[in-house]
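#struct-help
A.M.: can someone run this one for me? Single chain, 448 residues.
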Amino acid sequence: MGVMQRLQQYNELVRGRQCVVLSAKPADDLSESIKRIPENTVILLSSRTTSPTVTPVTGKTSVGYLISDNIFLKEGQDIIGAADDGFEIVIALHPGFTERYMIGVGVSDDFQFGKARDNHIKHVTFRPTQANARNATYSAIYAQCYNRRLIIENNVFHLPTWAAVYFSCREALDASANNLRPGPSIHLAHNTFVGETLRALNNDVIPTEALFVSVPNIERQSKQIAIVENTFRGKVSEVAEFTIGAGSNADLFRNTIDINNTGRTRSEVHLNRQFRRGAFALLGLRNTSAEPPLFNFAGNHIQLTSTAININRHLAVTLACNQFRAVNLWNQINSYYSLKAIDPLSMADECKKLPGSNATTPMTPCHQIVNTWTAITHSTATPLSGLENFDGPIIFDAAVCPTLPMPTATHHIRVLNNTDEITTASEGTTVMTTALGFMATLTVLLNL
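D.P.: on it. C-alpha coordinates below:
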Protein backbone atom coordinates (compact mmCIF):
# COMPACT_ATOMS: atom_id res chain seq x y z
CA MET A 1 0.00 0.00 0.00
CA GLY A 2 2.80 2.45 0.85
CA VAL A 3 4.44 1.88 -2.53
CA MET A 4 1.18 2.48 -4.38
CA GLN A 5 0.60 5.67 -2.40
CA ARG A 6 4.02 7.04 -3.34
CA LEU A 7 3.56 6.14 -7.00
CA GLN A 8 0.32 8.11 -7.01
CA GLN A 9 1.74 10.99 -4.95
CA TYR A 10 4.76 11.40 -7.24
CA ASN A 11 3.06 10.51 -10.48
CA GLU A 12 4.87 13.22 -12.44
CA LEU A 13 8.23 12.25 -10.98
CA VAL A 14 8.01 8.52 -11.77
CA ARG A 15 6.19 8.69 -15.10
CA GLY A 16 8.16 6.99 -17.86
CA ARG A 17 10.99 5.98 -15.54
CA GLN A 18 12.19 2.70 -14.12
CA CYS A 19 11.26 2.03 -10.50
CA VAL A 20 12.89 -0.46 -8.16
CA VAL A 21 11.08 -1.54 -4.98
CA LEU A 22 13.23 -2.87 -2.13
CA SER A 23 12.38 -4.64 1.11
CA ALA A 24 14.42 -4.62 4.32
CA LYS A 25 16.34 -7.59 5.69
CA PRO A 26 18.83 -7.30 8.58
CA ALA A 27 21.59 -9.10 6.69
CA ASP A 28 21.25 -7.00 3.52
CA ASP A 29 23.35 -3.95 2.67
CA LEU A 30 21.35 -1.13 1.09
CA SER A 31 24.51 0.51 -0.27
CA GLU A 32 25.40 -2.65 -2.22
CA SER A 33 21.87 -2.91 -3.63
CA ILE A 34 21.93 0.70 -4.87
CA LYS A 35 25.33 0.22 -6.51
CA ARG A 36 23.67 -2.31 -8.86
CA ILE A 37 20.80 0.04 -9.76
CA PRO A 38 21.32 2.14 -12.91
CA GLU A 39 21.06 5.89 -13.38
CA ASN A 40 17.71 7.66 -13.68
CA THR A 41 15.87 5.17 -11.46
CA VAL A 42 13.36 5.78 -8.68
CA ILE A 43 14.28 3.62 -5.66
CA LEU A 44 11.31 2.95 -3.38
CA LEU A 45 12.06 1.64 0.10
CA SER A 46 9.03 -0.37 1.16
CA SER A 47 8.06 -1.29 4.72
CA ARG A 48 8.15 -4.99 3.96
CA THR A 49 10.63 -6.45 6.45
CA THR A 50 11.48 -9.53 8.49
CA SER A 51 12.44 -7.54 11.59
CA PRO A 52 10.16 -4.59 12.44
CA THR A 53 10.89 -2.53 15.55
CA VAL A 54 8.36 -0.36 17.37
CA THR A 55 9.75 3.10 18.15
CA PRO A 56 8.36 4.42 21.46
CA VAL A 57 8.98 8.06 20.54
CA THR A 58 6.93 8.10 17.34
CA GLY A 59 4.68 5.11 18.01
CA LYS A 60 5.44 3.92 14.49
CA THR A 61 7.00 0.64 13.51
CA SER A 62 10.55 1.26 12.37
CA VAL A 63 11.77 -0.58 9.27
CA GLY A 64 15.56 -0.48 9.13
CA TYR A 65 17.67 -0.46 5.97
CA LEU A 66 21.30 -0.92 7.01
CA ILE A 67 24.42 0.22 5.14
CA SER A 68 28.00 -1.02 5.44
CA ASP A 69 29.35 1.55 2.96
CA ASN A 70 28.20 4.98 1.89
CA ILE A 71 25.63 5.33 -0.88
CA PHE A 72 26.71 7.39 -3.90
CA LEU A 73 23.72 8.65 -5.87
CA LYS A 74 24.13 8.38 -9.63
CA GLU A 75 22.63 10.93 -12.01
CA GLY A 76 18.85 10.90 -11.71
CA GLN A 77 18.66 8.34 -8.91
CA ASP A 78 15.96 9.05 -6.32
CA ILE A 79 15.48 7.46 -2.89
CA ILE A 80 11.91 7.62 -1.58
CA GLY A 81 10.58 5.99 1.56
CA ALA A 82 7.33 4.15 0.77
CA ALA A 83 6.10 2.94 4.15
CA ASP A 84 2.63 1.64 4.88
CA ASP A 85 0.56 3.59 7.40
CA GLY A 86 2.02 3.24 10.91
CA PHE A 87 5.55 2.46 9.64
CA GLU A 88 8.65 4.58 9.05
CA ILE A 89 11.65 3.90 6.82
CA VAL A 90 14.99 4.22 8.62
CA ILE A 91 18.46 4.19 7.05
CA ALA A 92 20.95 3.20 9.73
CA LEU A 93 24.46 1.76 10.02
CA HIS A 94 25.67 -1.81 10.06
CA PRO A 95 28.11 -2.51 12.93
CA GLY A 96 31.59 -1.58 11.76
CA PHE A 97 30.48 1.24 9.42
CA THR A 98 33.46 3.65 9.28
CA GLU A 99 32.66 6.08 6.46
CA ARG A 100 32.31 9.81 7.09
CA TYR A 101 28.88 10.13 5.43
CA MET A 102 25.85 8.01 4.54
CA ILE A 103 24.73 9.37 1.13
CA GLY A 104 26.96 11.27 -1.31
CA VAL A 105 26.17 13.42 -4.36
CA GLY A 106 28.70 14.97 -6.75
CA VAL A 107 32.49 15.05 -6.71
CA SER A 108 35.04 17.50 -5.36
CA ASP A 109 36.59 18.82 -8.59
CA ASP A 110 34.06 18.60 -11.44
CA PHE A 111 30.61 20.09 -12.03
CA GLN A 112 29.70 17.18 -14.38
CA PHE A 113 27.84 19.49 -16.77
CA GLY A 114 26.70 16.57 -18.95
CA LYS A 115 24.81 15.04 -16.03
CA ALA A 116 21.86 17.25 -15.19
CA ARG A 117 19.09 14.95 -13.97
CA ASP A 118 17.99 15.74 -10.44
CA ASN A 119 18.25 13.64 -7.27
CA HIS A 120 15.39 13.36 -4.76
CA ILE A 121 15.64 12.07 -1.19
CA LYS A 122 12.22 11.90 0.49
CA HIS A 123 10.34 10.31 3.41
CA VAL A 124 13.33 8.69 5.12
CA THR A 125 14.53 8.80 8.73
CA PHE A 126 18.33 8.99 9.03
CA ARG A 127 20.16 7.60 12.05
CA PRO A 128 23.86 8.28 11.42
CA THR A 129 25.00 7.43 14.95
CA GLN A 130 26.03 4.00 16.14
CA ALA A 131 25.33 2.29 19.42
CA ASN A 132 29.04 2.09 20.21
CA ALA A 133 31.08 5.07 21.38
CA ARG A 134 33.40 5.25 18.34
CA ASN A 135 31.24 6.96 15.79
CA ALA A 136 33.17 8.36 12.81
CA THR A 137 30.09 9.44 10.85
CA TYR A 138 30.10 13.21 10.29
CA SER A 139 27.04 13.65 8.07
CA ALA A 140 23.98 11.91 6.72
CA ILE A 141 24.15 13.61 3.29
CA TYR A 142 27.38 14.89 1.79
CA ALA A 143 26.97 16.97 -1.39
CA GLN A 144 29.86 18.35 -3.45
CA CYS A 145 30.12 19.76 -7.00
CA TYR A 146 27.44 18.81 -9.54
CA ASN A 147 25.16 20.52 -12.07
CA ARG A 148 21.67 19.46 -11.03
CA ARG A 149 19.19 19.83 -8.19
CA LEU A 150 19.40 17.90 -4.94
CA ILE A 151 15.90 17.93 -3.45
CA ILE A 152 15.65 16.77 0.18
CA GLU A 153 12.07 16.74 1.48
CA ASN A 154 9.95 15.26 4.26
CA ASN A 155 12.81 13.47 6.00
CA VAL A 156 13.80 13.17 9.66
CA PHE A 157 17.48 13.68 10.49
CA HIS A 158 18.92 12.66 13.84
CA LEU A 159 22.02 14.81 13.95
CA PRO A 160 25.48 13.23 13.84
CA THR A 161 28.55 14.75 15.49
CA TRP A 162 29.10 17.30 12.70
CA ALA A 163 26.25 18.21 10.28
CA ALA A 164 23.24 16.26 8.99
CA VAL A 165 23.56 17.85 5.52
CA TYR A 166 27.06 18.92 4.47
CA PHE A 167 27.29 20.78 1.14
CA SER A 168 30.73 21.92 0.03
CA CYS A 169 32.05 22.79 -3.44
CA ARG A 170 35.26 24.77 -3.93
CA GLU A 171 35.23 24.92 -7.73
CA ALA A 172 34.75 28.32 -9.41
CA LEU A 173 31.74 29.08 -11.60
CA ASP A 174 29.90 32.12 -12.98
CA ALA A 175 26.38 30.71 -12.78
CA SER A 176 24.96 33.57 -14.85
CA ALA A 177 27.13 32.84 -17.89
CA ASN A 178 25.15 29.85 -19.18
CA ASN A 179 21.59 28.82 -18.30
CA LEU A 180 22.52 25.19 -18.81
CA ARG A 181 25.31 25.45 -16.24
CA PRO A 182 23.78 26.86 -13.04
CA GLY A 183 25.95 24.66 -10.81
CA PRO A 184 24.75 22.71 -7.80
CA SER A 185 21.32 23.38 -6.36
CA ILE A 186 20.11 22.22 -2.95
CA HIS A 187 16.51 22.43 -1.79
CA LEU A 188 15.55 21.37 1.74
CA ALA A 189 11.86 21.48 2.62
CA HIS A 190 9.60 20.02 5.31
CA ASN A 191 12.42 18.12 7.03
CA THR A 192 12.85 17.69 10.78
CA PHE A 193 16.32 17.93 12.35
CA VAL A 194 16.69 16.56 15.87
CA GLY A 195 19.78 17.18 17.99
CA GLU A 196 20.52 15.02 21.03
CA THR A 197 23.45 14.55 23.37
CA LEU A 198 25.76 11.96 21.80
CA ARG A 199 28.34 9.63 23.28
CA ALA A 200 31.62 9.89 21.37
CA LEU A 201 34.95 8.51 22.56
CA ASN A 202 33.67 8.24 26.14
CA ASN A 203 32.49 11.86 26.24
CA ASP A 204 29.05 13.43 26.06
CA VAL A 205 28.91 15.89 23.14
CA ILE A 206 26.27 17.84 21.24
CA PRO A 207 26.09 18.02 17.41
CA THR A 208 28.05 20.85 15.84
CA GLU A 209 25.34 21.95 13.41
CA ALA A 210 22.43 20.74 11.32
CA LEU A 211 23.46 22.27 7.97
CA PHE A 212 26.80 23.28 6.48
CA VAL A 213 26.75 25.10 3.11
CA SER A 214 30.00 26.34 1.58
CA VAL A 215 30.12 27.32 -2.11
CA PRO A 216 32.30 30.46 -1.93
CA ASN A 217 33.47 30.45 -5.56
CA ILE A 218 30.09 30.05 -7.29
CA GLU A 219 29.16 33.60 -8.25
CA ARG A 220 25.86 35.15 -9.37
CA GLN A 221 23.86 32.02 -8.62
CA SER A 222 20.16 32.75 -8.06
CA LYS A 223 17.35 30.68 -6.52
CA GLN A 224 19.48 27.55 -6.20
CA ILE A 225 19.83 27.34 -2.40
CA ALA A 226 16.53 27.13 -0.51
CA ILE A 227 15.85 26.11 3.10
CA VAL A 228 12.06 26.16 3.41
CA GLU A 229 9.61 25.12 6.16
CA ASN A 230 11.97 22.85 8.07
CA THR A 231 11.94 22.19 11.83
CA PHE A 232 15.10 22.25 13.96
CA ARG A 233 14.87 21.19 17.60
CA GLY A 234 16.89 19.78 20.45
CA LYS A 235 20.57 20.16 21.31
CA VAL A 236 22.98 21.64 18.77
CA SER A 237 25.74 24.24 18.85
CA GLU A 238 24.54 26.00 15.67
CA VAL A 239 21.73 25.40 13.22
CA ALA A 240 23.53 26.31 9.98
CA GLU A 241 26.62 27.91 8.48
CA PHE A 242 26.46 29.51 5.01
CA THR A 243 29.22 30.71 2.71
CA ILE A 244 28.09 31.68 -0.81
CA GLY A 245 29.78 33.60 -3.60
CA ALA A 246 29.60 37.18 -4.83
CA GLY A 247 26.20 38.14 -6.25
CA SER A 248 24.62 34.83 -5.21
CA ASN A 249 21.64 34.40 -2.91
CA ALA A 250 20.12 31.90 -0.48
CA ASP A 251 16.49 31.72 0.66
CA LEU A 252 15.52 30.77 4.24
CA PHE A 253 11.73 30.81 4.49
CA ARG A 254 9.30 29.82 7.26
CA ASN A 255 11.61 27.54 9.21
CA THR A 256 10.90 26.73 12.88
CA ILE A 257 13.90 26.68 15.22
CA ASP A 258 13.70 25.76 18.89
CA ILE A 259 17.14 24.67 20.08
CA ASN A 260 19.36 24.58 23.13
CA ASN A 261 22.96 25.61 22.44
CA THR A 262 24.46 24.46 25.74
CA GLY A 263 26.99 21.65 25.77
CA ARG A 264 30.34 20.89 24.15
CA THR A 265 30.93 19.74 20.58
CA ARG A 266 33.29 16.94 19.65
CA SER A 267 35.98 19.36 18.44
CA GLU A 268 35.74 21.31 21.69
CA VAL A 269 36.21 18.16 23.73
CA HIS A 270 39.06 16.62 21.75
CA LEU A 271 40.74 19.54 19.95
CA ASN A 272 40.05 22.35 22.40
CA ARG A 273 38.57 24.50 19.60
CA GLN A 274 35.81 26.89 20.58
CA PHE A 275 32.84 26.71 18.24
CA ARG A 276 30.14 29.34 17.68
CA ARG A 277 26.76 29.22 19.38
CA GLY A 278 23.70 30.40 17.51
CA ALA A 279 21.10 29.77 14.85
CA PHE A 280 22.77 30.99 11.65
CA ALA A 281 26.35 31.92 10.76
CA LEU A 282 26.65 33.97 7.57
CA LEU A 283 30.10 34.34 6.02
CA GLY A 284 30.56 36.97 3.33
CA LEU A 285 33.33 38.42 1.18
CA ARG A 286 36.63 40.04 2.02
CA ASN A 287 36.37 42.04 -1.21
CA THR A 288 34.15 44.98 -0.27
CA SER A 289 33.92 46.23 -3.87
CA ALA A 290 32.25 43.02 -5.10
CA GLU A 291 28.48 42.50 -5.05
CA PRO A 292 27.76 40.92 -1.66
CA PRO A 293 26.01 37.57 -1.29
CA LEU A 294 22.38 37.98 -0.23
CA PHE A 295 20.56 35.96 2.44
CA ASN A 296 16.76 36.27 2.41
CA PHE A 297 15.06 35.55 5.77
CA ALA A 298 11.25 35.48 5.71
CA GLY A 299 8.73 33.98 8.12
CA ASN A 300 11.18 32.13 10.34
CA HIS A 301 10.39 31.39 14.01
CA ILE A 302 13.73 31.33 15.81
CA GLN A 303 14.14 30.51 19.49
CA LEU A 304 17.46 29.58 21.06
CA THR A 305 19.66 30.13 24.10
CA SER A 306 22.36 32.34 22.51
CA THR A 307 22.71 34.60 19.44
CA ALA A 308 20.34 34.28 16.49
CA ILE A 309 22.59 35.46 13.63
CA ASN A 310 26.40 35.62 13.55
CA ILE A 311 27.75 37.58 10.58
CA ASN A 312 31.26 38.05 9.28
CA ARG A 313 32.62 40.07 6.35
CA HIS A 314 30.78 41.80 3.48
CA LEU A 315 27.23 40.49 2.90
CA ALA A 316 23.57 41.48 2.56
CA VAL A 317 20.35 40.33 4.24
CA THR A 318 16.62 40.76 3.81
CA LEU A 319 14.51 40.41 6.98
CA ALA A 320 10.73 40.05 6.74
CA CYS A 321 8.11 38.70 9.19
CA ASN A 322 10.61 36.75 11.28
CA GLN A 323 10.11 36.08 14.99
CA PHE A 324 13.29 36.09 17.08
CA ARG A 325 13.56 34.96 20.69
CA ALA A 326 17.15 34.81 21.93
CA VAL A 327 19.78 36.46 24.11
CA ASN A 328 21.01 38.56 21.17
CA LEU A 329 19.76 38.92 17.64
CA TRP A 330 23.08 39.89 16.03
CA ASN A 331 26.78 39.37 16.44
CA GLN A 332 28.79 41.31 13.88
CA ILE A 333 32.20 39.69 14.21
CA ASN A 334 34.19 42.29 12.26
CA SER A 335 32.76 45.81 12.10
CA TYR A 336 35.20 46.78 9.33
CA TYR A 337 32.78 45.09 6.92
CA SER A 338 29.35 46.61 6.37
CA LEU A 339 26.13 44.61 6.54
CA LYS A 340 23.71 45.75 3.85
CA ALA A 341 19.98 45.35 4.55
CA ILE A 342 17.76 45.04 1.44
CA ASP A 343 14.21 46.38 1.18
CA PRO A 344 12.04 43.66 2.83
CA LEU A 345 8.92 44.55 0.82
CA SER A 346 10.21 42.12 -1.80
CA MET A 347 9.45 39.30 0.68
CA ALA A 348 5.77 40.20 1.25
CA ASP A 349 4.53 37.25 -0.82
CA GLU A 350 6.57 34.83 1.30
CA CYS A 351 5.06 36.33 4.46
CA LYS A 352 1.56 35.71 3.07
CA LYS A 353 2.31 31.97 3.10
CA LEU A 354 2.64 31.88 6.90
CA PRO A 355 -0.10 29.87 8.68
CA GLY A 356 -2.91 32.16 9.81
CA SER A 357 -1.73 35.09 7.69
CA ASN A 358 -5.18 35.30 6.05
CA ALA A 359 -7.18 34.75 9.23
CA THR A 360 -7.11 38.36 10.42
CA THR A 361 -7.98 41.70 8.94
CA PRO A 362 -6.05 42.26 5.71
CA MET A 363 -2.81 44.12 6.37
CA THR A 364 -0.70 46.42 4.29
CA PRO A 365 2.53 44.99 2.87
CA CYS A 366 4.39 46.94 5.53
CA HIS A 367 2.46 45.26 8.36
CA GLN A 368 3.02 41.86 6.79
CA ILE A 369 6.79 42.14 6.81
CA VAL A 370 7.29 43.45 10.37
CA ASN A 371 9.74 41.36 12.41
CA THR A 372 9.38 40.71 16.15
CA TRP A 373 12.10 40.49 18.78
CA THR A 374 12.05 39.12 22.33
CA ALA A 375 15.14 39.13 24.54
CA ILE A 376 15.40 36.23 27.01
CA THR A 377 17.35 35.30 30.16
CA HIS A 378 17.45 38.88 31.45
CA SER A 379 19.01 40.19 28.26
CA THR A 380 18.49 43.88 27.55
CA ALA A 381 19.46 43.60 23.89
CA THR A 382 17.47 45.53 21.29
CA PRO A 383 16.98 44.40 17.68
CA LEU A 384 20.08 46.38 16.69
CA SER A 385 22.36 45.29 19.54
CA GLY A 386 25.50 43.73 18.12
CA LEU A 387 25.35 45.61 14.82
CA GLU A 388 28.07 48.20 14.49
CA ASN A 389 28.25 48.84 10.74
CA PHE A 390 25.26 48.39 8.48
CA ASP A 391 22.95 50.25 6.12
CA GLY A 392 19.50 49.60 4.70
CA PRO A 393 15.86 49.06 5.79
CA ILE A 394 14.75 46.94 8.76
CA ILE A 395 11.27 46.91 10.36
CA PHE A 396 10.66 45.86 13.97
CA ASP A 397 7.75 48.16 14.84
CA ALA A 398 4.34 47.91 13.20
CA ALA A 399 3.38 51.29 14.62
CA VAL A 400 5.47 53.05 12.00
CA CYS A 401 3.56 51.52 9.08
CA PRO A 402 0.60 53.94 8.91
CA THR A 403 2.93 56.93 8.65
CA LEU A 404 5.82 55.30 6.86
CA PRO A 405 7.05 57.68 4.14
CA MET A 406 8.46 56.50 0.87
CA PRO A 407 12.19 57.25 0.93
CA THR A 408 12.92 60.30 -1.18
CA ALA A 409 16.29 61.21 0.28
CA THR A 410 19.12 59.52 2.09
CA HIS A 411 18.53 59.19 5.84
CA HIS A 412 21.66 59.20 7.95
CA ILE A 413 21.55 57.29 11.22
CA ARG A 414 23.78 57.82 14.19
CA VAL A 415 23.72 54.91 16.62
CA LEU A 416 24.33 56.10 20.17
CA ASN A 417 26.31 53.74 22.35
CA ASN A 418 24.52 52.17 25.33
CA THR A 419 21.09 53.36 24.24
CA ASP A 420 18.42 52.28 21.79
CA GLU A 421 17.83 55.82 20.49
CA ILE A 422 18.83 56.88 17.02
CA THR A 423 18.83 60.24 15.30
CA THR A 424 17.50 60.49 11.76
CA ALA A 425 18.24 63.53 9.61
CA SER A 426 16.88 64.24 6.15
CA GLU A 427 16.53 67.51 4.27
CA GLY A 428 17.40 69.52 7.35
CA THR A 429 14.82 67.86 9.63
CA THR A 430 15.87 65.96 12.80
CA VAL A 431 13.55 63.55 14.61
CA MET A 432 14.01 61.11 17.48
CA THR A 433 12.79 57.53 17.27
CA THR A 434 13.79 54.14 18.67
CA ALA A 435 15.88 51.34 17.29
CA LEU A 436 12.68 49.33 16.83
CA GLY A 437 11.57 51.58 14.02
CA PHE A 438 11.99 51.61 10.28
CA MET A 439 15.25 52.77 8.75
CA ALA A 440 14.79 53.50 5.06
CA THR A 441 17.86 53.82 2.85
CA LEU A 442 19.98 54.65 5.86
CA THR A 443 23.67 54.72 6.56
CA VAL A 444 25.06 53.93 10.00
CA LEU A 445 27.75 56.36 11.07
CA LEU A 446 29.58 55.27 14.18
CA ASN A 447 31.49 57.49 16.56
CA LEU A 448 30.78 60.76 14.82
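A.M.: thanks! Confidence is low (pLDDT under 50) at residues 405-448.
D.P.: also worth noting: The longest strand covers residues 41-49.
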